[in-house]
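Pilot study result, target chain (117 residues):
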Amino acid sequence: QVQLTESGGGSVQAGGSLRLSCTASTNTFRVYSMGWYRQVPGKEREFVASFISGYSAKHGDSVLGRFTISRDTAKNTVYLQMNSLKPEDTAVYYCNLLPVRGSPTTWGQGTQVTVSS
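Predicted structure:
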């Protein structure tokens, strides 16, 4: 069972920055996808950014130009650099991983990001 460990959440004022990290308990060099989603209470989980095998990194429209996903396969870790944070970015951020296309998704425990105005 793959485990994902997230870190880096916290509280910041609008305009500030945070960097999230997600480390997998397995080798991520050949996984199909790994990335980030976020969720606020009462709403569906929203796509933020991900790497998908064979494609360039993809970012959701609401974070394009402000957030950047990166990875260090030697450390089995993906990062989410979040700049120019807005109050509407406040959410629990979840890391996810799909070992192969169509496989069940593994989710991390989530890390809270709170942006105050």
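One observation from the pilot: The radius of gyration is 13 Å. A full batch analysis is planned for the follow-on phase.
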